[in-house]
Write a structure and sequence with these properties.
By secondary structure, this protein is of the alpha/beta class. The chain is built from 9 helices and 8 strands. Strands 1-2-3-4-5-6-7-8 form an 8-stranded parallel barrel, surrounded by 6 helices.
Length: about 240
């Protein structure tokens, strides 16, 4: 899962995207529009709330979230939620750690929490671990990434996009990528709104991007941002999770 720091073209960038809709008020029609737009844009996956599963994603991978957005759930509850999502057809699960445990230095507890969800999301299904990097200091980011790797995660991920401390930063992505050393993927999410933002994250080491305004991000690389008969884009919304 090593990072490719060369600048991708439009299609290459699209293939890094989890096209995301996590608004609490999202409807089935909103999700259908998300899927149609994602297919037209050529993204890797669509990421939706677990209650929106099962989902016909038009051939795209299906991602969902677990313990979202606070992470302050018992590990067995997170594991049960993840298991239900897998039974409902999820290919990938993005879980939120207990950020308070990380801030308190309880990294063994963080690792155990991740391991519980990993057991419910067996390979080759993909587990991403949302660390809420903006709420942690650098030492805590490194320790949580190491805990995620020890627990068998496939990716570490910056943010839910809901935390008041903020979303992804180039610094956090660089630190996370350096810590996992290509052994895990790195997903940048939260506040990545422009082409420049997305390319900066890729240069920093991101191997996946969580975007809600995907069409706008891709449009900066030229080409058609989607076919003319595609569903209208789902606009990015403050607090939408990405």
């Amino acid at each position: 899962m090593s990072a490719d720091t060369s600048q991708p073209d439009r299609a290459g960038l699209a293939r890094l995207v989890d096209h995301t809709l996590l608004k609490p008020e999202a409807t089935a029609d909103d999700v259908a529009a998300l899927v149609a737009e994602g297919v037209a844009l050529g993204v890797y996956s669509v990421c939706v709330s677990p209650s929106m599963l099962p989902l016909d994603a038009g051939g795209l991978k299906v991602a969902t979230v677990c313990g979202f957005p606070s992470g302050k759930h018992h590990s067995d509850v997170k594991a049960a939620e993840a298991a239900r999502s897998v039974a409902d057809g999820a290919d990938e699960v993005d879980m939120v750690i207990d950020v308070g445990a990380a801030r308190a230095g309880r990294f063994a507890d963080v690792q155990a929490d991740i391991a519980a969800v990993r057991a419910a999301v067996p390979a080759p299904l993909v587990l991403k671990v949302i660390i809420e990097s903006a709420a942690l200091d650098d030492d805590q980011v490194v320790a949580v990434c190491r805990a995620a790797e020890a627990a068998g995660a496939d990716f570490v991920k910056t943010s839910t996009g809901f935390h008041p401390a903020g979303g992804a930063s180039v610094h956090a992505v660089e630190l996370m990528a350096r810590t996992v050393g290509g052994r895990l993927g790195v997903k940048a999410s939260g506040g990545v709104r422009t082409t420049a933002d997305a390319l900066a994250m890729v240069r920093a080491g991101a191997t996946r991007l969580g975007l809600s305004g995907t069409a706008a991000v891709l449009s900066g690389l030229g080409g058609d941002a989607g076919s003319s008969d595609a569903a209208p884009p789902v606009p990015p919304v403050a607090g939408a999770g990405y």
